[in-house]
Amino acid sequence: MTGLLAIQAPLTLLMSVVAAVLPLTLVFLVFQWLFLRLPRAEIVRLLKATLVASAGLYLFLLGVGVGFLPAGAAIGEALGKTGSLALLILLGLLLGFVTTWGEPSVRILAEQVDTTSGGSIRATWVVWAICLGVAVATGVGLLRIGHGIPLLHVLVPGYLIVMIVAWRGDSRFTAVAIDAGGVATGPLANSFLLALALGTAAGSGSSDPLVQGLGLVALVALAPVLAVMALGAAIVRRTPPEREEP
């Protein structure tokens, strides 16, 4: 029976990857037939690249299920059992930073911003801002779990601040900041940090780990928005004003 389950799990994951990639491939083929009319060699190259990406996605998700989720849950449970709030904050900062540092979607956004801005907003700055934002969010999230603070007591003021900052901040950075919140909750950060939070709630003896453990991803999506808006404010302040021609 165990062997059958071991076979079924990879097969189920394979079907999930096919269900995710196949509709996009079909949409591309429809556009190719109606509008694009790319050469056959280019179509073959794109389809080969899609197969490679699908294989990579399958292996990544398989590794997440085997490695990242159990590791995050085990680390979180060990942290929760220590009862040290200072340790929760410090390791939350560290784990939040390094997890986001390895998130591929963060790198993609940073490179796109760098290219689109002509190098005026460097990719390294964006990556560091997002990573620091997620680090703070993870530390606050684990502190919330350790203290048993209701999620809305943290989340509602945070989003109010985001709306104020986005309204009053430089409009050139608003879209980048909001997208930063989305890419920070990519598959790598989601899988590890979610398991970390649930493990911490279980290890700390929470009466309801489901209530206390969930919600960290919402904080992770919130903090990079503020971090990138702060980066934008710093860049604007450092940029000398343009001189008007007489």
List the helices and strands and how they pair.
Blueprint: H1 2-36, H2 40-82, H3 85-101, H4 104-116, H5 123-147, H6 151-168, H7 171-183, H8 187-203, H9 209-213, H10 216-238
Describe the structure in your own words.
This protein has 246 residues and is an all-alpha fold. It has a domain of 172 residues. Helices cover 85% and strands 0% of the residues. It is built from ten helices and no strands. α4 runs antiparallel to α5 and α5 runs parallel beside α8. The chain is globular, with a radius of gyration of 21 Å. The chain starts with a helix and ends in an 8-residue tail after the last helix. The N terminus is likely disordered.
Structure characteristics:
246 residues, mainly alpha, disordered N terminus
**How much is the average pLDDT?**
87
Percent strand: under 5%
Radius of gyration: 21 Å
Which structural category do the helix and sheet elements fall into? mainly alpha
Distance between the termini: 83 Å
Which stretches of 5+ consecutive residues score pLDDT under 50?
Answer: 1-8
- Give the total of beta strands: 0
Using the alpha-carbon principal axes, give the shape: globular
Topology as H/E string?
A: HHHHHHHHHH
Number of helices: 10
In helices, the fraction of residues equals over 70%
- Major sheet size, sense and barrel closure: none
Quaternary structure annotation = single chain
Short description:
This protein has helices at residues 2-36, 40-82, 85-101, 104-116, 123-147, 151-168, 171-183, 187-203, 209-213, 216-238.
